[in-house]
Every structure is written in structure tokens, then in C-alpha cells.
Amino acid sequence: MRTQVAIIGAGPAGLLLSHLLHLSGIESIVLESRSRADIEATIRAGVLEQGTMDILTNAGVGARMKAEGALHHGVELAFGGRRHRIDLTELTGKAITVYPQHEVIKDLVAARLAAQGQLLFEVSGVQLHGVDTATPSVSFVHGGEAARIDADFVIGCDGYHGVTRPAMPPQGREDFTRNYGFGWFGILVESAPSSDELIYARHDRGFALVSTRTPTVQRLYFQCDPADHVDNWSDDRIWAELHARLESNDGWRVNEGRIFQKGIIGMRSFVSTPMQAGRLFLAGDSAHIVPPTGAKGMNLAVSDVNVLAQGLEQYYRQGRDDRLQGYTDAALRRIWRAEYFSWWMTSLLHTFADATPFQREMQRAELECVVSSRAMATALAENYVGAF
Ligand code: FAD
Ligand code: DHB
């Protein structure tokens, strides 16, 4: 097989990149190790920044997001038994949309297939060759047969555990990592939303987050030990923990319902630089991870591929590669800002096992400052909606 751009991974980064390239008349093939049913059912992110919504809309894949997503103009911070609203729209003129990542994936897969895009599911044994030459290639197994794609470029959109980052030449690489030592326990619940807006709660027992999915499904998270197991948490234990952490002086309580999905994710910050070596580029979680508190992961994947698509378009239309060569620097400016915000939100709202009494008081005081100072609330709001 021969194509212009070989893309590894059909997450938001890989699918959107393939679609943006198609809109610019550039051919690509996407290789995905899982099945279509699997990628369309994996529960992950939920919050889309305004800029992400704009990119999806301009790419012609925003119709269902607009119709079914929920536009949110504010978020709440809860601590000390009280909830405090941050008015995102008043402070920034922008809003966010709650629309699940797997729905974005469904929209992108449908758009790629409608345009006869080449999307190969359930491939295995992906290996990269000659990425430091002008003729890179990818070998893999599909439907029991060995296959190979020759391409001009290979783009690693295969997430944190993929094969493309390890294929980067080691010279000159620098990785940055922070492990937080805790995780999030996430559940999906059959019940009406408990709140019109997301609630980020700090409690001495640990962080909790109230989010939504649809008028009949809630998405809830609480801080946990990343080595814990979902089987240790009966539904009764989960509700007791959520009620304790979301305690409210005004009688508000989180709505209970049937829990139909449970999962634990670890929290880490990670950036791997540079994001390019020769003809191999990384985008999305293959190059960087944020803890989910700032809701930035999928948004960063989208902004990476937006920059990369512009670079590839310039290369094919004008025969110039200055944008491609500037990709790492352009992408990293936004990535580091999102890394900072996600780290800051995580530090502000979680309990840390090694925190001294002084550090705990500083955390409480900082929360008070954020909800009482318009300047600090604006800084949070700007970062949350991605207004930078
Ligand atoms: P991925 O979505 O990880 O996609 C990579 C794809 O590559 C996968 O489909 C994988 O199967 C495939 N792949 C891997 N290895 C190979 C291989 N060797 N060969 C072929 N294919 C391969 N982000 C937000 O913006 N907002 C949120 O609210 C938010 N909440 C989150 C909540 C949770 C519980 C989690 C886990 C994440 C959350 N995120 C959030 C982060 C977001 O989900 C990720 O940042 C996003 O999925 C990154 O997209 P990606 O395309 O880079 O990678
Ligand atoms: C959701 C996930 C997040 O990481 C976040 O900060 C807000 C909402 C969600 O899955 O709904």
C-alpha cells in the first residue's frame, strides 16, 4: 500500500487528523489495533473547549455535538460544605460543551467512512521503518496477513501506551513526568443530573467530581488509590463516599441510581519532547498526558492535529516545510500551559498523603482566594475554556 500520511491510532487525534487532511485533499490511512465497536464504546473524556467545538464544526463533524451536547456557561467549586459558581461566560465570553469523547469518535468514524477514508481496525504488530529517511514505512498484520504501507510521513496518534513514541530516536529526547500517587474512580449512573453544571469538590476525604452525560446518565468521579480495584467498591460504599465528599450545607445531595460502569485511572503529568524526528510526528496522548482535573486531554489532542494538519497542508500545497519544522514549538506552547493548569487544578482540589498541616491550610486559603477574587476566578475560567 502507498499513501501520503500513515496515521497510527484511531482516537480523537488520529481520526480528526485523517479527516482534516482529507478536507485538504491529502490522502491518509489510519491503523487501529482495536475494533470499531470497542473504540466507539470506550468511556473517557467529556468536556470540549470552545476552540475544540469550533475545529469540529469547521471540519463538518459538529452537527450532532451541537444538537446533543450540553453547553455549560459555568462550573462550581465545592468545599467546606458550600458551592461557589465560576461564571465562565461572564468572565471569558466563552463556554464549554459536555459531549462524550466516544460520541466524537462515532462522528469522526462516520465522516471518514462516508468519504471512503481508509480506516483499518484490529491491526497488530505495527512497526515503523526508515522514519529518519524521506521514505518511511509501516509494517503490520491485518486480517491474518502481513502488510506494509509506504508513506511520506508517519504520525503517532496511538496514545500513551502506543508504539510510536518508543520508535523515536533516543538522542536529544527529554521527557518530563510527575506522578501524583492517586487516581480517579469513575462511574456512570442511570439517573437524572444532580446539577446543571459540573461540580469540582475538595474534601478532607478526597476530591469528587459531578459531571453529566445525558438527561438520564450522570458521570461521577472520586479520588482513590490508583492500585485499588473496582471490586473493592460496592455500590453502597461508593454512594457513602460520594455523599460524604459532596456534603452540602444547603441540603443538596447527589442523585443516586444504578451504577452501570466502573473504572479507575491513574493520574500523571507527562510531556515527551521533541514531538518530531525526521518524518515521524507525535500528536495527542502519545506525546503528553495531563491529569484529568482540567479536562484538557482530548482538547490538546485536537489542537495538536489542527497545527499538524496546517503544516502538512503547507507542505503539499506550497512545497514548504517551515510549519512542519515549527510543529513541536507551536504545539508545546499550548501543551505546557495545559500541563500547568491541569497540575494546578489537581493540586488545588485533591488531598495529598504527604501534605503538612501548613500545606492543607494553604490549599484551603487558595480555594477561598479563587472564589472570592474576580482576577483569580478569571484566570481559572480562561484556562478552563481554553481562552489562550
Ligand atoms: P487515544 O484516545 O488514547 O487514542 C489512541 C488510539 O490508538 C487508541 O484507539 C488505541 O487503541 C490505538 N493504539 C494504541 N496502540 C496502537 C498500536 N500499536 N497500533 C494501532 N493502534 C494503536 N480529556 C479532555 O479533554 N476532557 C475530559 O473531560 C477528559 N476526561 C477524561 C476522563 C478519563 C476517565 C480519561 C481516561 C481521560 C480523560 N481525558 C479527558 C483525556 C482524553 O481521553 C485523552 O487525552 C484522549 O483520548 C487523547 O486522544 P488521543 O487520540 O491522543 O489518544
Ligand atoms: C469529565 C472529565 C473530566 O476530566 C473533567 O475535568 C470534567 C468532566 C467528564 O468525563 O465528564
Automatic annotation (TrEMBL):
UniProt keyword Cell inner membrane, yes or no: no
Pfam families: FAD_binding_3 (PF01494)
Keyword vocabulary terms for this entry: FAD, Flavoprotein, Monooxygenase, Oxidoreductase
Enzyme class label: oxidoreductase
Domain FAD-binding: 2-341
Keyword Hydrolase: no
Name this polypeptide is given: 4-hydroxybenzoate 3-monooxygenase
Organism encoding this protein: Duganella vulcania
